[in-house]
Every structure is written in C-alpha cells, then in structure tokens.
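input
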Amino acid sequence: MLYKIKLKNADDTIVLDANVYEWLTSDPYLAKVDFINNLRKHSSGCAVFQKTWKNADGSFKTETLYLHKVIAEKFLIDTKSKTDNLVGAKNGNKLDCRLENIVYRSRAVASRKRKTSSKTGYTGVYQENQRYRAVISQNGKSMHIGMFDTAEEAALAYNRKSKEIYGDTGKLNVVKRQKGDGTFEEVTA
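output
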C-alpha cells in the first residue's frame, strides 16, 4: 500500500510506502513535531521539514530534515558506503520517497544526474552557430561526441555515449519526438 501526502506549500504530493508512513507517524520525536503534516517543497525539489526553535539564551536554531535522507538513514543505512553516501531518487522524482526509488550514490553519480543548465535544455548539448555540439565529461575531461543539425540529435548522441561510459548511472536526456499522428512521445534512445 502507498500513501500520498500533500505538501504544505505546494499542490505536489509525496509518495511513501506503508511501513515508512507508519514509522514516520509513530516515531516519538517525529510525531511530537508533527513531521508528516509539516512537510514543504524545498527549492531543490525535495520534501523538507523546517522548524525554528528559540533557545534559552534568546537565540534561534533552525532544524532542517530532508524526507528522503530521514528515510534512507532509517531503512537503507546498510547500503551506505564511504563513496556512496549521498541520497538520491532513482527516477529523478525527489517526491517519490518509496524505498525502491531511494538510493545512496556517489558524488560523481549525483553530479551526472543533476538538472542541466544548458540553454538547449539538454545535458551535454550546446549550440554553436546553426549546429549543436554534444560533449560529455569522463574523468574530469570533456570529450567531443559530434556536431549535429538539431539539439535533439545531439541529445540522443549524448545519451548513447552516456550509456556506453556510465551504464545505468549515466544521465539520459528525455527528448520529445513528434509521431506520425501529430502526438508526441518522450524518448531517450
């Protein structure tokens, strides 16, 4: 069974496994601060609990708990290693907090999965005059993949190289392609 919880500051919902929901609502501290009903969408796209406490000396302390990290530390701690120590979402949806979607990964993998800042909207694709260059980084060095007539062709070339070099840990661009009937489909290959 899955639970969907609406966030306080957005129309978005988080998805949780039943056993995770049960723990989040029964843990003494999390229940005391009403953790599950005070989750907000952070600017990073994650679900976060933030509360400011007044200290005895009059100063303030803000407590910040990221939902995916809280879950990973409780249920997946045995998969954490010296290198795989950052928590991420396998499918890229940071509000999908099902245990099967949460994973510990290395800084390098997390960096590859980060949203692109390219003006073309595709990772590793840059416009040069009227053509598009596809590049990928490996071992800290930029590797030229090729020049293409469209950003979409360059994005798909990037995807092929990313799969070749990084396998399942590589980032893939999602390209919208128009089908014969005028509708669009999303492709990565």
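quick obs: The radius of gyration is 20 Å.
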